[in-house]
Amino acid sequence: MEVLERAGYSAYLVGGAVRDLLLGRAPADLDIATNAKPEIVKSLFDRTVDTGIRHGTVSVRVRDQWMEVTTFRAEGPYADGRRPDYVEFVDDVVADLARRDFTINAMALDRSGRLVDPFGGRQDLARRLLRAVGDPVERFREDGLRLVRAVRFVVQLSLACDPATERALVEQVDAIRPIALERIGRELERLACAPWHEHLDWLASLPLWRQRGEPLAWLEQGFAWLAARRPFSLAPPPGWPSVALWFVGLDEDAPLCGKRFAESLAYGKDVAHSVERAVRLVRAWLGGADATSPLMLYEAGYDAAVMAARMIAFLTCGDLFERARWKRAICNQPLWDRADLALPARDLMDMGARGKEIGEYQQALVKAVLSGKMKNRREDLRRLVMAWRKEDDGHGLGGQ
Ligand code: ATP
Ligand code: MG
């Protein structure tokens, strides 16, 4: 901000960072707004990236910290309910604040600590009120993502909705339909790090989720199932374990639904896979299965097992016995992956195993280790394979 000001421009901290500072929370990221055009911003700093230069945003690195510097802008009409048809740069911070979604996000702070707050965001924050900037109906129609953002802020910051905003949040739910799942996913990621367990009835009652069809529509049932299991005394585990918890109670194939949800929200294949297997493990546990057995943990894999342990800690309100049981089982798990067998495939080949046989031996070794019959030690495993080969006269797996 000092650099911009010295060059004769104005600069403000804006948006979420101002809100979080007023709340005494650590800001997630820093957004700076300025009347300097992007080309000027780029010329003033050594390290910049054209993050969204067409919309006026340049990322700038100062003292090991990236921040987004965006030229004051006003937005043209929204024909598609997603993005403005065009943006235009303006010279006035108030005009820039007017395009923002909620009053608590529409404040600016200059370097001297002066707050620019044309919509009463500070008062709303003090009253813990979420209120759209301007007409809520219009603001939700312009960009349906704001519906999900509203839900996220209510939960994240324990806010109540202003009556007009609340009404619009229910009546304009179909505005979510044209919004890309990835953008929705980014907001739900933040919801998954917030105390959603305190708002389960409200979350389950929102007509929002079903507007967008599956996989989002599944959330309604997922939240309702959790609502029926309250009270929960622990804060939910942040991130993916929370996302997985939203799917545990589904009637349909819950693990697959969780996987599809994670995939379509672009959370990546690994995450989707872990969510699927964690949901499966927790459902097995709910059904009374011995879910911490080495075989079940092996099938889930390490990431999903840890995720499931966190989910179960939440579901049991931190039950000490369950916690200890999962911790012990995960620490003592002898094998998580076939690749972790102490006997390398090379050794099997030295013993004469070929082709498909190698995989079959490995599978049998995994079984022997998981059953506790064998320790995962190279010599022990080698002896076992030799015994099998002798029994079988060098062929097959001797009854394994
Ligand atoms: P967080 O602290 O989680 O980052 P945030 O409020 O900073 O929350 P961002 O997505 O980082 O959220 O957006 C930064 C600012 O940009 C917001 O505070 C708001 O002023 C504005 N903004 C973001 N998304 C929208 C939107 N869909 N419509 C209007 N304004 C938006
Ligand atoms: Mg932010």
Write up this protein.
The protein has a 7-stranded mixed β-sheet. The protein has a two-stranded antiparallel ribbon with strand order 6-7. It has helices spanning 2-6, 16-23, 38-44, 93-98, 121-126, 136-142, 145-156, 163-171, 181-191, 200-205, 218-228, 240-248, 254-264, 269-286, 294-300, 302-315, 320-332, 345-350, 356-370, 378-391; strands spanning 11-14, 31-34, 48-52, 57-62, 65-71, 73-75, 87-89, 108-109, 115-116, 129-130, 160-161. The mean pLDDT is 95. The relative contact order is 0.05. The chain has 20 helices and 11 strands. The radius of gyration is 27 Å and the shape is elongated. The chain has 400 residues and is of the alpha+beta class. It folds into 3 domains: 1-127, Beta Polymerase, domain 2; 195-333, no CATH class; 340-391. Bound molecules: adenosine-5'-triphosphate and magnesium ion (MG). Adenosine-5'-triphosphate (ATP) is lined by residues 15-16, 20, 28-29, 31, 100-101, 105-106, 143, 145-146, 149, 190. Magnesium ion binds next to loops. This is tRNA nucleotidyltransferase (CCA-adding enzyme). Pfam families: PolyA_pol, tRNA_NucTran2_2. One of its GO terms (biological process) is tRNA processing. Its cofactor is Mg(2+).
